[in-house]
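stage 2 :: seqdesign
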């Protein structure tokens, strides 16, 4: 099993010349905690996350560091902190040291990368461009859906069916596909994620059931808490 078999393919990105307020709005709108930052050609240049934004928050009454601490930290660090706390540009705040994987990266390797670097997700790249995201949730859901002996590379038929399922989900009106994870095995499709309503969940099920080659569907959609709307 590889990244291509479990990744979320609807990836919300942000241009590198965007402002931080745009990043915040995208995160709130799509209920996500990080955004890949891309250049004009779609190449990955960074990642901006909740953690990067949280570093900008400090109590107004927090005392300025003493001059000798700033001296010990080096001449560049105080200026760096100022930029991180005050810049309105995504490129000034985003993380540039990105851990990423390719579509054929084994799931086991991805799990080790997440653990080693203590990160929650990795972008999946094809020729330097983002084509998916694998998160801890993707890994856990994939592992929970198959027996221990089934973690081998899926057959070509399952991969082709996954592509068709992905296309069908993107056609469902008003569905946040980036919040849906699914696995395909021998024509059986298992879906997790969140939906706005029972009707939307039913639309997801119908869309998948209508995909040629799908033998059965197991839809396990949750609901977003009421407070997450209108923030």
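stage 2 :: out
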């Amino acid at each position: 099993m590889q990244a291509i078999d479990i990744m979320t393919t609807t990836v919300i990105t942000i241009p590198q010349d965007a402002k931080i307020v745009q990043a915040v709005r995208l995160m709130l709108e799509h209920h996500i905690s990080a955004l890949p930052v891309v250049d004009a050609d779609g190449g990955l240049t960074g990642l901006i996350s909740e953690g990067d934004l949280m570093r900008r928050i400090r109590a107004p009454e927090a005392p300025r560091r003493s001059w000798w601490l700033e001296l010990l930290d080096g001449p560049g660090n105080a200026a760096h902190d100022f930029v991180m706390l005050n810049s309105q540009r995504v490129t000034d705040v985003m993380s540039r040291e990105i851990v990423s994987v390719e579509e054929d990266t084994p799931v086991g390797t991805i799990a080790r990368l997440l653990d080693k670097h203590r990160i929650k997700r990795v972008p999946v790249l094809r020729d330097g461009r983002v084509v998916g995201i694998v998160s801890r949730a993707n890994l856990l859901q994939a592992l929970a859906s198959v027996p221990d002996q089934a973690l081998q590379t899926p057959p070509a038929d399952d991969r082709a069916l996954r592509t068709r399922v992905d296309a069908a989900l993107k056609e469902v009106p008003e569905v946040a596909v980036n919040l849906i994870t699914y696995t395909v095995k021998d024509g059986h499709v298992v879906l997790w994620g969140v939906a706005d309503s029972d009707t939307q969940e039913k639309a997801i099920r119908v869309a998948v059931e209508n995909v040629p080659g799908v033998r059965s569907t197991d839809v396990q959609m949750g609901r977003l808490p009421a407070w997450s709307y209108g923030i």
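stage 3 :: structure notes
- Residues 67-72, 226-231 have pLDDT under 50 and may be disordered.
- The chain is about 40% helix and 20% strand.
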